Amino acid sequence: MKSYYEMVKDLNKEFTIPKLDDIDSNNSDPLKEFRDLDFLKEIEPISEFEKESVFQQIEEQFDKVPGKSLVRAIGKGGFGKVYPVTHIQTEMKVALKYIEKNTHSDINSIERLCNEINILKKVRHPNIVKLYQTFEDPDNLILCTEYLDLGDLFDYTTQRERLTEKEARRLFRQIIFALSYLHSIRICHRDLKLQNVLIDQNKNAKLIDFGFSKEYSKGEKLNETLGTPAFSSPEIILRKPYFPEKVDVWGCGIILYFLLTGKHPFANFNKEAMYKNILNGKIKPHRSINNRVERLLKGIFNVDQNKRFTLEDIREHEWFGDYEIEDIRGFELGKELIEVNESLVKRVEELGYDYTYTKDSVEMYIHNNESMVYYLLYKKYLERQANDTLNKMKEKRLYTRAAMFEEKKRPERIDTKASLLTAPIQSKSPSNLSDSIQEDRSGLKPCDINKIWTSSQKLSFINRGGKSKFSQFKVKN
């Protein structure tokens, strides 16, 4: 059985710093082999090794690192606290998850941790949290992931009491797309719950926490009893062999019900009663659950896993609706990178990294310093592109509204001698009608005035403070 440090080294060979006891005192430069690594290249001789801890090395890349400045943790997972930091070179926010080795020294914790890192290194999908890099210091293993600033789906929903059907469907679709991708490469999550779905600044869902995830074969049944009881399926509660895909489907149903109602479909303060509700699979009616959603949930909450909906059944359901999977620049899901943005690689090179090594790292999906800088710049590029598109849409909308306002046909007053006769004395006539009002009045017979009232020309009556005005209008062409 490998030791903790050996297992961590296997996961982080490129970033493992040698322990002082492992260094040969006869070697004049014991750190020579590590000097090629960018984040270690400034390490001083052995006498200063303790001072040059990974905290200090990380500080070269990140701002506000815990241990050196007071930073509030944005979350606490099963393994450790998560801190928001800023990557100095790209000025992009990332999350650093600190995992204390002494606290998680048992074999189960180690296996779960290694499993999560291995899976995060394999997957890439817009609705799955991205792992950029891993670090290690004598006391902690540090995971650097993308920063998701709107919290988890539980808080996001409860802050609004419940979500609208439109928004719930959008987030539910994203979760289904992420699971479909995972199942296509034979990985099941097995711990789907509201707290394991985070929301980014664009209000998109991202799956996290792959500690209980597992790779499986087609048609294989699993036996491990794990996960969160309130989100567990009947076969998990009964400790029976289960299809991993159907366990994930059950968890999706609970998430959907909560998004629409703000309540858990089976929750009860009494655990025995909650288990009974799960085994029955019957949900409580709610005003936010219409007939189409109810039919979908009945298919998802079928207690017989063989008859339970598959992800394909969910995608084809009437409520799920028509959809188009968004094009993700540079990626083909589950496969190699289609193209590397050459201009971004050059930008990474300008920051002091090797061009060829950066390009190879991105193409081979290696989690190192070069690829992290590339992906952060790539994310920054996409955000800027999205903002530019949004601004153009706003400008176009404002321009269109202004144009419509200018081009809108308005009634234009046409003053004639006849109309002046019915206007109050204080009215001003146009310059081209400078005739005397008195002359016009005196020269017109009473019957002619009656003709004005009964003519086919349109007259508009406006009653203001008891005074009547008659004005002749026509629409401007």
UniProtKB/TrEMBL annotation:
Any GO BP? intracellular signal transduction
Q: Which cofactor does it need?
A: Mg(2+)
Q: Which residues form the Protein kinase domain?
A: 68-320
Tell me yes or no: is Cell inner membrane among this UniProt entry's keywords: no
Family statement: Belongs to the protein kinase superfamily. Ser/Thr protein kinase family. CDPK subfamily.
Recorded hits in PANTHER family, A to Z, give: KP78A-RELATED (PTHR24346:SF82), MAP/MICROTUBULE AFFINITY-REGULATING KINASE (PTHR24346)
Quaternary structure (record): Monomer.
* Protein known as: non-specific serine/threonine protein kinase
